[in-house]
Amino acid sequence: MNPKINFTPGPSQLYFTVEDHVRTAFRDGIPSISHRSKQYESIYKKAVDGLRALLGLPANYHVLFTGSANEIWERVIQNLVEEKSLHYVNGSFSKRFFEIAQLLNKKPEKIEASMGQGFNISDIVHPGIELVGITHNETSSGVSVPLEFIYSLREQYPDALLAVDAVSSLPYPDFDYSKIDSAFFSVQKGFGLPAGLGVWLVNDKCIAKAEQLLSKGISIGSYHSIPSLYTHAVKNQNPETPNVLGIYLLAQVVEDMVRRGITAIRKETEYKAALLYQALESHGTLKPFVQDKAFQSKTVIVADCGDHTENITKLLQSKGMQPGDGYGSFKKSQLRFANFPTHSKEQYELLVDTLAG
Amino acid sequence: MNPKINFTPGPSQLYFTVEDHVRTAFRDGIPSISHRSKQYESIYKKAVDGLRALLGLPANYHVLFTGSANEIWERVIQNLVEEKSLHYVNGSFSKRFFEIAQLLNKKPEKIEASMGQGFNISDIVHPGIELVGITHNETSSGVSVPLEFIYSLREQYPDALLAVDAVSSLPYPDFDYSKIDSAFFSVQKGFGLPAGLGVWLVNDKCIAKAEQLLSKGISIGSYHSIPSLYTHAVKNQNPETPNVLGIYLLAQVVEDMVRRGITAIRKETEYKAALLYQALESHGTLKPFVQDKAFQSKTVIVADCGDHTENITKLLQSKGMQPGDGYGSFKKSQLRFANFPTHSKEQYELLVDTLAG
C-alpha cells in the first residue's frame, strides 16, 4: 500500500503478492496454528518443495530454517569447522563471515580484495582448510563473483566444504549445486518478504561433517545444530516455535515464482541489469562502481555518484523512487539499486528514464 | 478473522488488536524499512520503553531481541556460564533448558520434581554454581513456581546469576526484578503475537559476566552475544536484520496493554483462572492436574480429563472453542487452557459454562 518504488537492497520492496498472502494468512488463522500440527507440516513441506523446484535442488540437499542469514554464518562455522576455514573477503558482509569464525574461537584465514573488486584464480592453496566461505554477491559493493570462480574453489580444495553466501542474489543465480555444498540467504532480499527468516541449504556432506564434530565431543550448538534442524526437517518441523507466518509467506511467494518461471525471472533480471548498467555507462556524471564487467552484480547495482548523490536521490524521490544509500564510508558518494524479482521492467524503465533526465 | 476461540498455550490466539496493527504496518510500508533507519530506531525504542513501563523494569535492566525463547536458553548458557549452571526441572521445557547446557559442553546440575509438581525450599546448596535457571511456568504441566521460591534461590546462591524462564507467564507475573538477574519470553504466548521473536531481559550483572567470559578467551557466540546485542540496543538497533514486523507489532500491543493497565490485566487473569479452577474442582469427571494450589499456574491451566478428553474436545469445538492438547504422553488424557491477556472474561465464562454443560 506504500506508493514508493523501493530500490534499497534489503529489506527490499515486498514481492508484489505478499500483501494478499498476509490477508489470507490472517483470515485463515495461520499466525495462531500450532507448529506441531499437520496443517503446519503441510505449510513447511510446501515451502521446501517449492524451493526445491524453483532452485533445482538435488535430492541430497536439505532446506533448513533459521532466524536470519547472520545466524547461518554462525551455524556454518559452528557445525562445519573444527579449526580452520578460509574466507574470500571483498566487502563488509564477507568480512563479517570471517570475523564470526574468529569470535567462535576458530582459526580462520582470509584472501582479501578491495571493495569493488573480485578475485582471480590463484595457484596458492592454503593447507588444512575444512571449509571455504565465499560471498556470491557483496551487498555492500555490488560485486558478484562468477560461478566459474566459485566452482574452481572446489577443485582447489577438494577435501573442504564449499559454503556460498547468496543472501542478495538468490533466486537469480543458477547454481550447479553438485559443485558446492551449502548456500544460504535471508528472505527480505531477492524473495521480497518481511525480514526474520534465514534459509540454509545443506547437502549430505554437511550433515556428515556436523555429526563428525559432535562425535569428537565438539559443541555444535543445541536446537539449531545441523543434526537437530535436520531431524526435525524430515518431519516438516522445526526444533523451536519458528516464524510460522514467515515460512507460510515464503511458501506462497515461492509458489508464485515457480508459476512465473525461474527462466523468465532470470532473463528479466538480466534485462533490467543491462538497462541500468547501460544508463550508468552512458551518463555524464554517474558511473558503475564495479568497473570490471565480469564482477558486476546483476542483483545489486552500485552507482558512483560523487557530489551528485544528494541531487540524484532527490530527483528519484520526486518521482516516487527510493534508492539505497551507499554502504558505510560510501554513504555520501554512492547509491545502490536492488534488482530483485519484485522490481518490474516498467519500474526499471522509469528509473533509467529518470536518471537520463 | 478466524472465528474460533483458541485456548492452545502457544502459539496463542492473537491479541485482539494485532490484525489492525498488521494492516497499518503494511499500509505504512513497515516490512520494507531499513533496520538502520531513524524510523526503525523509533519503533525499537517504542517497544523497549513500552516493555519497561508495562513490566516495571528498573534502569539497570536491558531489553534484547532474539529469534525465539529457545535461542535465549542457548544464549543464557553461552554468555553467562563458564562451567556450571543449576536447573530446576519439572517438565519438558525446564528439562530442555538443562539439556541445552549439556549440549554446549557445560557441566550443568539439576534438581528434579515430577511433572505436575513444584519445588520445596531445600537446605542443600550445590557448590560452584554460576547461574540458576528456573522455569516460572511449565507450559507442559501447568505448574507455576511461587515468586517467593524464586527469590529464595537468590539467598541460597548469592554469587550466582538467577535466570527466569517466563515464556508462558509474562506479562502476568509482577516480578521484583531486583531479586533476579534475567527473565525471558517469546511473543506468541502471553503477548498474543505471531511467533518469531524472543525477548530477553538482562541486568548489568549479566553484561559484566559475559564480558568476563570473553576476557578469559571463552567464546560467547558472535552477533547475538550479550555485548553485541547490548552495543546495538543502546543505539535502538539489532546486530542483524531483525524481525522488523514482529518488533513493530510488539511495540503496538505493549502500548495497548499499557493503556489497558497492567493491574487490570493481572486482576482479570486471576479472575479467569479462579473461574476455571473452580469449574474443574466442582466437575464430576474433570479435575486440575496440578493439585497443590500453591503451584497452580494462572496462565496455563491443565485439566485431567482421562477417558473424556476426546468428548470434551468435541464439545468445546462444537461451541467454537479450541482447547490445547495435553503435552507429550498426556496428549490423550489432559487438556491445556491458556489464560492470556487476549482471552476475555466472556470467553472464559463461555468455556466454564460449556464445561459445566
From TrEMBL, chains A, B:
Q: Which family does it belong to?
A: Belongs to the class-V pyridoxal-phosphate-dependent aminotransferase family. SerC subfamily.
Biological pathway: Amino-acid biosynthesis; L-serine biosynthesis; L-serine from 3-phospho-D-glycerate: step 2/3
The identity of this protein, by name, is phosphoserine transaminase
On the tree of life, the source organism's domain of life is Bacteria
Q: Which InterPro entries match?
A: Aminotrans_V_dom, Pser_aminoTfrase, PyrdxlP-dep_Trfase, PyrdxlP-dep_Trfase_major, PyrdxlP-dep_Trfase_small
Q: Name one GO molecular function term.
A: L-serine-pyruvate transaminase activity
**Organism ancestry:** Bacteria, Pseudomonadati, Bacteroidota, Cytophagia, Cytophagales
This enzyme catalyses:
O-phospho-L-serine + 2-oxoglutarate = 3-phosphooxypyruvate + L-glutamate; 4-(phosphooxy)-L-threonine + 2-oxoglutarate = (R)-3-hydroxy-2-oxo-4-phosphooxybutanoate + L-glutamate
GO biological process terms held by the UniProt record: glycine biosynthetic process, by transamination of glyoxylate; L-serine biosynthetic process; pyridoxine biosynthetic process
By its UniProt entry, which Pfam families does this protein fall under? Aminotran_5
Q: Which cofactor does it need?
A: pyridoxal 5'-phosphate
UniProt-listed Enzyme Commission number(s): 2.6.1.52
Q: Which residues form a coiled coil?
A: none
